[in-house]
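Q: How would the structure tokens look for this protein?
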Amino acid sequence: MPLRLPDRLPAIELLKQENIFVMDYSRAHMQDIRPLKIAILNLMPLKITTETDLIRLLSNTPLQIEVNFMKLKSHTPKNTPIEHMMMFYRDFEEMKNEKYDGMIITGAPVETLEFEDVFYWDEMQRIFAWARTHVTSTLYICWAAQAGLYYHYGIPKYPLPKKMFGIFRQRPLLPQLPIFRGFDDVFNMPHSRHTEIHREDIFAHSELTLIADSDECGASIVMARGGREFFITGHLEYAPNTLDKEYRRDKDVRDDVELPVNYYRDNDPSKAPDVSWRAHANLFYSNWINYYVYQETPYDINKIE
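A: Here is the predicted structure in token form.
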């Protein structure tokens, strides 16, 4: 089945070029199917890029999915046209009375700040609390993972001596979980962050389970509430060239930027990246949709609690 997307969303044409089956709302309304409703709170600076990355992964399922984009009323993006935001996004206040089968909350470029110093922290707290009663399962990514763990469970974040930047090997610690169905013993995940969470803080909290870990980059996936919450410290959703763009952007303004590790062929930025995470990324999102959203959400979406 295809994804149901807002009419004229830029990702539609981009993904059709990749032979990914998507349809706009107008065509989707002709099908008598109750789609899964997924809300995406997109906090990343390049909204269209992140939209496309996430939609690409959500499309790898036989289920029909309706995507709704959420934005913060307390923050106006600087890198996305206001016309795009007005056409495709709604404020949390407009969506708070609705319920969703799944939700994705992205990272944000504020990780070096204390959570309370982020100027939209009050609104984020309201959204975190709302998701508990209005969403069947929520994925928290990168900064959102750290913020969600802090808000819900009091888990602190810690500054890193240098940026965690590159592709790192992860190991499923509970490979029998449905989220890891079809996974190999190790899988790769992109990371791009200046802070981390510590394993001992996760182990000390009875409601949290560390389900994937890395010798190189530490705790990578934490699960809570039987899969109603997943906290992912990396970026499985990244496209092949995302770290390359980030490296070249930063290199143009600073002289202390290191190469992303385990990324370029022969560690040479003049060569193409070795894409080694895409298969597991598709599998992770398909498993999430199938086992933790579709099979857990009530048919009457208003019964989510």
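The longest helix spans residues 278-294.

The mean pLDDT is 90.

Upvote if useful.
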